[in-house]
């Protein structure tokens, strides 16, 4: 009998309420973004003596108190908040609780409140008046986990009106996240819409499924790499190619991920060179083994100088991206080591730490590199 429940897909899926983007001060959300990196917290809460908020990414763990007015509303305004995703903890009389009227995402293996402060230097993540693709939720049965799982599929503008077939990118989430990660904190659908409107990328589908693959009666440590690779090969790719108009060959497939997903992208693509021509590794280690998988995985196992020509011929793009504040000391050494081994790769670096701001920037740079050669061949 099939098991219809997959625990890692059990959390709320429709995260990321758009109210946080309102700036008129009349939002029904507990969070309103203000100008110049400001944010207003405002909530009506009875029966408590204190309400505080804490930014989860602050080292000093300051809890900022909200002030109660005569009408029973607790409020606070803060300014000069850095652009990007910030996880917010709410405390009511010292007890941490989820604020149900503030934006929510799946993060840290659970529902978390957050704010997303726009980057005024980059507007490619903003909802604009351009043709929009569709985001569809699909259920597929996994032979690896013997459960039904969820994937999200982005289709480009006018997909339903067209008869053409498309290339596809498989986008992998980071650790303690799920299949919604590239949609809510990643905003990949908005990035794709905006780049498509500017004619900077090829039309493509993007598929997102949770990175943890726990299979019954199998080694739990394999959930991150071996099981995920099998899931992609046996379940996800066949499901997508059976249901959607995609071109079923490696020249029209790409795989990319951030953090944990970066390791999974390398593992899957390197072990299955017949599947993907384009590989994106965002905020991931290049030459070190994955923690907890010692003896099972290291990209360096594939970067052997004697086999460099064979390895390079197995794909068209190996793309590494990293923030200037993450693994900074290793980055230059790793790049030099790959060059010594004659491994062909593109390296991209942008300001930032191990965060979604870096992953967004990496995806923004990565997408225009995909499928151009194939498109030019079709036009000849």
From TrEMBL:
InterPro entries: AB_hydrolase_fold (IPR029058), Esterase-like (IPR000801), Ig-like_fold (IPR013783), Ig_E-set (IPR014756), Mycobacterial_A85_antigen (IPR050583). GO terms for molecular function: acyltransferase activity, transferring groups other than amino-acyl groups. PANTHER family: DIACYLGLYCEROL ACYLTRANSFERASE_MYCOLYLTRANSFERASE AG85A, ENTEROCHELIN ESTERASE-RELATED. This is Carbohydrate acetyl esterase/feruloyl esterase. It comes from Eisenbergiella tayi. The gene is axe1-6A_3.
């Amino acid at each position: 009998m099939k098991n219809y429940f997959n625990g890692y897909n059990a959390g709320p899926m429709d995260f990321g309420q758009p109210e946080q983007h309102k700036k008129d001060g009349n939002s029904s959300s507990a969070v309103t973004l203000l100008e110049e990196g400001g944010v207003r917290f405002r909530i009506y809460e009875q029966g408590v003596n204190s309400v505080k908020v804490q930014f989860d990414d602050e080292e000093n763990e300051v809890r900022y108190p909200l002030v109660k007015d005569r009408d029973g509303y607790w409020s606070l305004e803060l300014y000069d908040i850095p652009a990007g995703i910030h996880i917010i903890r709410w405390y009511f009389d010292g007890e941490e609780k989820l604020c149900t009227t503030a934006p929510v995402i799946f993060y840290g293996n659970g529902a978390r409140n957050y704010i997303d402060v726009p980057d005024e230097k980059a507007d490619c993540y903003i909802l604009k008046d351009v043709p929009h693709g569709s985001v569809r939720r699909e259920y597929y049965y996994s032979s690896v986990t013997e459960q039904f799982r969820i994937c999200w599929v982005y289709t480009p503008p006018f997909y339903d009106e067209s008869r053409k077939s498309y290339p596809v990118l498989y986008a992998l989430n980071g650790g303690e996240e799920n299949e919604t990660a590239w949609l809510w904190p990643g905003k990949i659908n908005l990035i794709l819409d905006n780049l498509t409107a500017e004619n900077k990328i090829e039309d493509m589908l993007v598929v997102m499924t949770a990175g943890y693959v726990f299979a019954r009666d199998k080694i739990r440590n394999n959930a991150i790499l071996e099981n995920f690779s099998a899931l992609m090969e046996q379940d996800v790719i066949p499901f997508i190619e059976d249901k959607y108009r995609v071109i079923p060959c490696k020249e029209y497939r790409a795989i990319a991920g951030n953090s944990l997903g970066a390791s999974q992208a390398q593992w899957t693509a390197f072990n299955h060179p017949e599947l993907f021509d384009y590989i994106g590794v965002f905020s991931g280690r290049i030459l070190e083994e994955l923690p907890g998988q010692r003896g099972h995985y290291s990209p360096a196992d594939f970067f052997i100088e004697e086999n460099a020509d064979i390895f390079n011929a197995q794909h068209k793009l190996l793309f590494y991206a990293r923030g200037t504040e993450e693994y900074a000391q290793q980055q230059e050494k790793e790049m030099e080591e790959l060059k010594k081994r004659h491994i062909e790769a593109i390296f991209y670096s942008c300001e930032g730490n191990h965060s979604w701001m870096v992953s967004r920037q990496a995806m923004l740079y990565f997408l225009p590199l995909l499928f151009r050669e194939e498109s030019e061949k079709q036009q000849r």
